[in-house]
Queue: 3 jobs
Job 1
Amino acid sequence: MFGKIRQGLIKTRETFGKAVESIFKDKKEIKKSVDELEGTLILADIGLNTVQKLLKDIFKEEDPKQALKNRIKDILLGVQEVQNGNEKPYIHIFVGVNGVGKTTTIGKIAKKRKENGEKGIIAACDTFRAAASEQLEIWAERSGTEIVKQQEGADPAAVAFDAVSKAKAKGYDFCLIDTAGRLHTKHNLMEELQKISRVAGKALPGAPHQTTLVLDATTGQNGLNQAKEFVSKIKVTDLILTKLDGTAKGGIAVSIVDELRIPISYVGVGEKVDDLVPFDPKEYAEGLFD
């Protein structure tokens, strides 16, 4: 498993890592170096507030480059990890806008759980997009996981209720709930997600046990804005960052965790099931540089 995150950061390292290395090697006056570092970090999609925190008195450190790495690690390690409990069935809702890889991510997690000897259900609650349901069916078949769906346009909360109820009745280990991802500014989508969460709790008291926001790393600061919108409306427990291998601006992970104080549980670094890997803050921080 070790090395996949570093490998996924190749594009970021080629731009960000080399630029940072050059600044630290160049013996310029401190203010000019700080200005250059600031610009480099912002170009890597680390937000201004986070950049200022990372660079405060950085050149007073004995080893500024190592200090920068350590500060990035401290931000990423400074949030509480999601503790998967022993609840059975474990109800896990996935939210996020269209196109972030949410449905594929659910399929990969279903397959991982199946490989661990667990049985479960996928709930196709995106009833507005026929393609989403079809995609989930393919993943359900691949992973040997049951799928609960209804006709296009059906009430998503009703699908969630049926799925959670069935998982409970059959003594399954998990229920993964896919949701619609229309534009994050749409008020009715947020209300729909809140309703799905409430209904899951009616079908099984204490549910949902986890609500994961899936973000596309290639969308940068726009992804952070999406995240803020979701977090303001629903209780998000953790984040999954997809397509980290497809961006040269992998610094967005630092900004998201720093501003939202929500941990990243997985990152996607490729198309295969094994390319959805548990997030390792230390490997990520090292992988940005060298």
Note: The first strand starts at residue 90 and ends at 95.
Job 2
Amino acid sequence: MTFMWPIGFVLLIPLALTLWLWRMPSRMLTVMRIITTLLVVLAICGPAIRLPSRAGTVIVVTDQSQSMPPSSRDLQNEAIELIQSAMSSSDSLGVVSFAQSSLVARTPGAGKTPGGHMDMRKDASNLNDALDMALSLIPPESPGRIMVLSDGRWTGLNPTSSATRAAARRIAVDYRCIEHTTANDTAIVRLDAPAAVTPGESFMLTAWVRSPVRQEISYSLTGGGKLLASGKRTVPSGLSRVTFRDKAAQPGTNSYRLTVTGGDGDPMPENNSAKLLLGVRGPRP
């Protein structure tokens, strides 16, 4: 409970003196007079109860990274329009787009502005920073909600910390998964190599390739900007191993990149390549 004019409580001082100096003839009348005086003072102060507001802020967080399917922008726009149409005039909607960085694509209360996307570098998916930015757009002590439209393939810091901060403010974080179909997807699961080698030492590079069916794949391995190996081979359905051999040269860091290509209609070509750094120990010339 709050009071509109709390200065009115100052009246209790002269009223208390009046009750003391001009006492009533009976105890009952004195109690009734005290109660009446208190009620009058409370009425003067204007008591009020602050009811929780149902108006709030909804922040839609849209993933713009390379791992999202080509139709993701249309699906995200559709979700934003559905949320906007279901909101009342006292609610506000904001949009945060993220990939390697996060940007406010629509500030809350900006009205039904078109779009909700911004151009940015798409080679990462920093969901943690996007959630922090979304939380900063919701006023303190105000109800809010965050809707994440992503495939869940985040990079950088674990977004659990941001979700914990949202829970501490009683802000719900909803999630809608928008991802590629995995049918007919040829992918490099990982690329392994020794932790370190010495100059002149021969070593193996091992790639694990996942194929949806038995098929012929093309591969190419580059190192230091030079083509080291290329060709074709038949892989079975499921996970298979492809090995390469190389020999360390001078001390330093060697960079390798492997690319594989399967049949037509690969829904996720971005997972058809993998990079690896290998340290070569030894004194530099």
Note: The chain has three domains: 2-48, 57-177, 187-280.
Job 3
Amino acid sequence: MYRNLRWLVAALAGTVALGLGVAPAAAATSSGTADRVRHGNASATFERLILAPTARGYEGTLPVTIHNGGTEASYFRLLFREPVAGSFKQTTPQQFCQTVVGDTGDRSTYECFLDRIAPGGDLTVHFTFRALTATKPYPMRADGGRIAISDSTSLDAPRSTYRGFTTLFRSTRGALHPARTYQQDQHADARLTVAGEVRLTRQPNGWYTGTLPVTVRHGTDAAHWGLRVGVTVTDDRATLVGTEPSEVPCYYTCDAPGDLFMEGEERSFDLLFEAPPDAVPGTVEATATLTTYWRYDEVTERTPADNTATFRVTIAP
């Protein structure tokens, strides 16, 4: 019954994002020119997003100041589209944000239900984004991020028109200009390698258990919720029942434990297998398959041949 739990956790993480309330890793550098959207008594002011190089790609925050121009305390709704697919990380202070139903394209659009703002008052929210791409010695630019505001929290309520914000990737040398256009990979280039055999031995409770070391690699910066390993064993003589280290239970298919993958990141862990007490001793063939998934779909693979590996399953007499 736990087969799809990790997928559900990932789906919820992608659908509902709650800011963690930690300090932003890198603040945006002021451009000196603020943009503004307005709807009824609500307005939102923002500048540009600067993504700075870190040990894991790029990260930065976009400060947005929301103003209540009315005479009563009010709750507003802010909508934004992330500049890079899969880049939205959190809000500070924490706001409740969810993806817009029916949103199309690789980049997600979110709507955030903001804290109550006093009449004539302001609320500044820092939106943190990250791009898990290899850092470059030259600056880059991504267009397509945009913001709108509504003076109502109803999902079907009118809103302002969208206004775009500029996203710049600071180079590893500190430069912002001249900026090249950032091109995010649209295809995955994952790779799976496994040990040649998993040997299951009988435990005191009568069941057989064993572990298989595996290594997975994410070779591009394509947006993803995770990398998933599925296993098929001849005659169902043994079953994949988890990973080590483990984050959530899994069954038949398991996600690689840990955070999202950096471009080029390689990660090793163990697959856990078990067989019932009445399992017939012997050796059978098995196949492991690695898939990269984003939202609810598999990401097209650039080199699918290295996503599959065969190995032996031996149940000790």
Note: The helical segments are 5-15.
